[in-house]
Each structure stands twice: as C-alpha cells, then as structure tokens.
Amino acid sequence: MVWVILLVVGLLGGTLGSLMGLGGGIVVVPALLMLGSLSFLDITPQVAVGTSLLIMIFTGISATIAYIKQKKVDYKSGLLFFSASGPGAVIGTWLNRGFDTDSFQVYLGLFILFVSFILFIRKYLKPLPRSGKGIQRTYTDEEGLDYTYGYRIVPVLAISFVVGMLSGLFGIGGGSLLVPAMIVLFAFPPHLAVATSMFIILLSAVVGSVSHMIQGNVNWVYALALIPGAWIGGTLGAAINRRLSSEKLVFFLRLMLVIMAFRLIYEGMTSA
C-alpha cells in the first residue's frame, strides 16, 4: 500500500513540477513528511529533502528530454543560472542539517504559502521594461512569433544563488521562484521559462542530491518507489504544457499547497 502511495506521489510531483517548471519537490517533500506524521513512513526532514532532490533528477531528465524535443530549452542561459544555483544548492544542504522536524514543518509550511501566492499572481505578471543593456536573446515559438528577452549577469547570478540555496534547504527545486523571475525580470516567454527552469533544476538537483547522499540523507527504498512515477510525470507534464492550458491544474495545485502548508504549520506548532 505504501509503495502505491509513493508511486502516486512521484507521479503527481513529476507531472505538476514538469508542467510549471517547479521540479516536483514542492509536492514530494510535504507528502513525505505527512506520510511520516501518519506513521506510514519513518522519515526525517533531512531524508525527505535528500530523497526529493534525488527524485527531481529523474523528473528533470524526463522533462528536459521532452522540452528539448520541443526546442524550448535555452542552454546558454540555463548554464549561466546554474553556475550560481549549483553552489547555492550545496550551501542549502548544509543549512538543512540544523532543522528538527517541528521547526522544519513550520518553515516549509510558510514557504509553501508564499509559493502558492506566487502561483496565484503568476498569470498577472508582465515583463518589466528593460534598458536593452546586457545579454540579449531571441526566441521563435511554434506559431512563428518572435520574442526578445535578456538579462544582466550580476542579477541573474544573485537570484540563481538564492534559488539554489532554497532548493538544497527545502528540496523544492526552486522553480516556483525562478520561473516568475525569468518572466518578469528578464522577459522570458513563459513556455521557454518553464522548459529552461527544468533544465536548471535538473543540474541543481544533481549537485544537491550528491551533497545529501554524502550526509546519508537519502532513503533508497522510498526513492525506488517514487522514481517510476516521477519519470512518467516529467514526460506527461511537458506534454500537457504543450497542448493544454494549465490554469485548472494550477488552481488545483494552489489549493492543495495551501492545505498542505496549513497542515504542516499546525503539526509543527502543536508538536513543538
């Protein structure tokens, strides 16, 4: 029964993470902690985060392959973002060591509430005016429409470092912050932002998961149950992103995140 639940968790995390460029950890980590609180799993916050980051490698590979076939990944920008998010992920994994279960649940719950707010306002976000300085790129979508976007290196590195650190700390991938930043600050077309975000998350997850493996924070049995669903979900989410409007799924995700957040905060505060 537990294996079936973990398979479904992996599928949901992979699908929703790939669909919106979140990485999937925003679903997997709270789900693992709640299964632990219900005595289905024996798990600590550190193991939940480490296992989630390992799962995101497979979600990232699956989704990135699908987005590469759709020609939506900006490799050069992705590698630049990763040059700062990678070191940030390592620092985040070491910061994670200081949390006990109760405090981690409260902080993760608060962060998830913030993420749900970002998801709520994301469709209203419009690119800020740009000066035209720095790196400029162009993208042509499937309908032949041309988009111009760009960024300066220092803001990109600063934002990427913070995103990577949060990824290593909470195991959530960082796409919830990265995608809106790419759209608003750097004028990335939304579909390109999601696809490139998954590429960055894949690279950051590799670095973060290796750091957690060194610390012994990966449960390989749980991972084996989660990986098949995450792999299928990564491909499925990319396919949905291409064909359908994701508004209904985003609404469902926001609702689910709010419920999980309040449950985590409640459990953390009442157990403290």
Give your account of this protein's structure.
It is globular, with a radius of gyration of 17 Å. Helix 1 (2-20) packs antiparallel against helix 2, helix 2 runs antiparallel to helix 3 and helix 2 runs parallel beside helix 10 (247-271). Strand 1 (135-140) and strand 2 (146-151) form a beta hairpin. It has ten helices and two strands; from the N terminus they run αααααββααααα. By secondary structure, it is mainly alpha-helical. Strands 1-2 form a two-stranded antiparallel ribbon.
Order of strands, widest sheet: 1-2
Approximately how much helix is present in the residues? over 70%
Please count the helical segments: 10
Radius of gyration: 17 Å
H-E order:
HHHHHEEHHHHH
Low-confidence runs (pLDDT<50, min 5 residues)? none
Instruction: Find the count of extended strands (DSSP E, 2+ residues).
Output: 2
User: Structural class, from helix and strand content?
Assistant: mainly alpha
Major β-sheet profile:
2 strands, antiparallel
Overall 3D geometry?
globular
Terminal residue distance: 30 Å
Measured by DSSP, the beta-strand proportion falls in under 5%
Overall pLDDT level: 84
